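U., I forgot to send this yesterday:
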Amino acid sequence: MSIEYVVVSEGEQDEPIELPTEEDGSLLLSTIAAQFAGASGLKYRAGGRLRGLRLADEHVLPPAEGWAAHRYFCAFPRIESATAALRPRCSDLIVLGLPWKTSEEAVRDYFTAFGELLMVQVKRDTKTGLSKGFGFVKFADYEAQMRALGRRHMIDGRWCDVRIPNSKEGGSAAHRKVFVGRCTESLTADDLREYFGAFGQVTDVFVPKPFRAFSFVTFLDPEVAQSLCGQDHIIKGVSVNISSASPKRERGARSQLMGWGLVEGTPRVYSWPPDAWHHSAPLTDTKPYLKYE
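Result:
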């Protein structure tokens, strides 16, 4: 059999390379790995779905319809690690503000640029069949989800927002925030931001001043926060415990401050003039009332 050249790329969007087949029509795995380090096989897309190719004795076998029928890209083995096991699953994302004319195919074409999609749906009225102006997408890869969440989107000439459902900002603050206990003064806000940034996008880190042996970390995705709760983590040699920063905890902290509220960062002095207080008898002391936090 004459030598045939197979069009292969690392990913679907990458520039392809032509690789030579063997005399029996197969493609050596070593030939693939020489161009794409770490590749363990080939796959291709048919009818919108991914298909893998058979591997026998380090030879990748062509599909029934022959090599020329498809373009191929590399398959890589999954690398399992302790950090990867803790990564949260992708969420269904709601797409708000879709033009009425936008179809599911148009939504799929747009968001495919961010990564592989598992689901695309445009919600329609059951009686009229017309679009309701919003839909849902779900990515296969968490990094693709975060790329889509981090920006606005122009779809069919209209700005659209992508969010995690039931939330204006990707989940309520209580669900996106975790309580980090057993902290030491050696752990800075930058240390916490760097460590927890490996699990998901961190939007805020709060370390009380004066130091109180705890901190709060807020994530963009509430699923990241909830996946970390109940676990111990070692940060720069310090064992910290992660729990939910529930509203109950926050209410308790406020009640301990006698209703004055927690002022993040710096102490505040409240100076109230005498006429701001309601008393049955006039005040004889004209000095302002000072309250320290």
